[in-house]
Design brief:
Layout: E1 2-11, E2 14-24, E3 29-33, H1 40-47, E4 55-60, E5 63-64, H2 69-74, E6 76-79, H3 91-101, H4 108-118, H5 134-146, E7 152-156, H6 164-176, E8 182-187, H7 190-196, E9 199-204, E10 207-213, H8 214-220, E11 222-232, H9 235-243, E12 248-256, E13 261-268, H10 274-284, E14 288-296, H11 299-314
Parallel strand pairs: 3-8, 3-9, 6-7, 7-8
Antiparallel strand pairs: 1-2, 1-4, 4-5, 9-10, 11-13, 11-14, 12-13
Length: 315
């Protein structure tokens, strides 16, 4: 449904997007993840026909966005970073106006009512947009993007400005579209990707540096073969003893806690019986084992690690 081939965008001497290629299948929900300035918004503006690429091509449902922009746009619902809303119009009137622009078949009111219900806007239907909170204005932006039942939805930071409850509701709305609508959403919030998206595209400095499923990204946050061990023992002695366990390649003292508890990061070859062997080594020396678990890092730390690896490969 969405395809980019060597998509490139230059602003003078500055390359904002550098030969990015990806394909998103029908009904999939994909997150475009990257720090501010990584090229997320520029890619979305090229996909929606607002910017022409310097090189490369992109298509929506097989329609070339550059060659036939109008036809491609008819297949899209788009929530830009800053959606243009009319503050003097009520929510109902504005959505009716958008529905007419899209020339929806059938009764306009039914499309308006459905979009308001999906986005939790029914209580605000007759309120002027200019008097709404930022969170509700964001909801209006999402409603205008989905009102005409587009097969492809492109959302630029859809939960910005929402309170925690609204964030949960909008994420649920996006997930509910899976299967019948193809969704590409940008964000710089890692947990949002793992909760909402099936697949992740990671950008840095205009380059696509990684691509994975959300489950794969979370799995990488669990270091393969790495264990967190907490025990009551002399730190150096414990590290040396565990390092002698077959299959253990390294032990790092990760910190000390109150009461003589030491935390170790143990790297093994990943064999299934290594945790049991480590526990046995601790028990044989009479030390109290407080914790033995797979070592995990936060998704934020994983993201930084991926960026650092990409930078190292460029050198």
């Amino acid at each position: 449904m969405i395809q980019a081939e060597d998509l490139t965008k230059d602003y003078g001497l500055n390359r904002a997007v550098d030969r990015v290629s990806f394909r998103i299948e029908k009904g999939d929900i994909v997150g475009l993840l990257g720090p501010n300035g990584s090229g997320k918004t520029t890619i979305m503006r090229m996909l929606t026909g607002f910017f022409a690429p310097t090189a490369g091509r992109c298509s929506i449902a097989g329609v070339d966005v550059t060659r036939d922009s109008l036809s491609a746009r008819r297949l899209l619902g788009y929530l830009p970073e800053r959606v243009a809303l009319y503050p003097d119009m009520t929510v109902r009137r504005y959505l009716a106006f958008v529905a007419k622009v899209h020339e929806v078949p059938g009764r306009v009111d039914s499309y308006v009512d459905e979009a308001m219900h999906q986005c939790g806007l029914v209580p605000m239907a007759d309120r002027h947009i200019g008097k709404l909170s930022r969170g509700y204005r964001q909801r209006v932006g999402i409603a205008q993007a989905i009102i005409h039942h587009p097969p492809v939805l492109i959302l630029d930071e859809p939960t910005v400005g929402l309170d925690p409850r609204q964030v949960v509701e909008i994420r649920a709305l996006i997930r509910s579209l899976a299967g019948r609508t193809t969704v590409l959403m940008s964000t710089h919030i890692l947990p949002e990707v793992s909760i909402t998206c099936r697949r992740v595209l990671i950008l840095d400095r205009g380059r696509l540096i990684a691509e994975d499923t959300a489950e794969g990204l979370e799995a990488k946050a669990v270091g393969r073969g790495q264990l967190t061990v907490r025990l009551t023992a002399p730190a150096r002695e414990a590290a040396e003893a565990i390092e002698r366990v077959p299959g253990v390649s390294a032990v790092e003292i990760d910190g000390a806690e109150v009461g003589g508890v030491v935390r170790l990061l143990v790297t093994t070859d990943g064999a299934a019986d290594r945790p049991e062997a480590v526990a046995r080594a601790v028990a044989e020396r009479g030390w109290a084992l407080r914790e033995l678990a797979p070592h995990t890092i936060s998704l934020e730390d994983l993201f930084v690690k991926i960026l650092e690896q990409a930078e190292a490969e460029q050198r």
